[in-house]
Amino acid sequence: MAVLRLIFWGGVVTVVLLLVRRSHPGEGPAAPRPLHLDAERILNERFARGEIDEQEFTERRTALRRQE
Questions:
Q1: How far is it, in rounded angstroms, from Cα 60 to Cα 68?
Q2: Is 0.70 surpassed by the pTM of this model?
Q3: pLDDT tens track of the chain, all 68 residues?
């Protein structure tokens, strides 16, 4: 009798968890980011570290945004 009760409640918990996971579809694996956003992030980091000056930063950012 205790085993059947344990199986029953385990099934109830499983169903509830599956329903909760389906109601939040946006929390699954993240969609891949567009490459220009990754490139712009890297460009921002390089500028912040001082590897490139403001003129080069502006030129490269403009070029990246044209390719969208």
A1: 13
A2: no
A3: 888 888 888 888 888 888 777 766 655 566 666 666 788 899 999 999 999 999 999 999 999 888 76
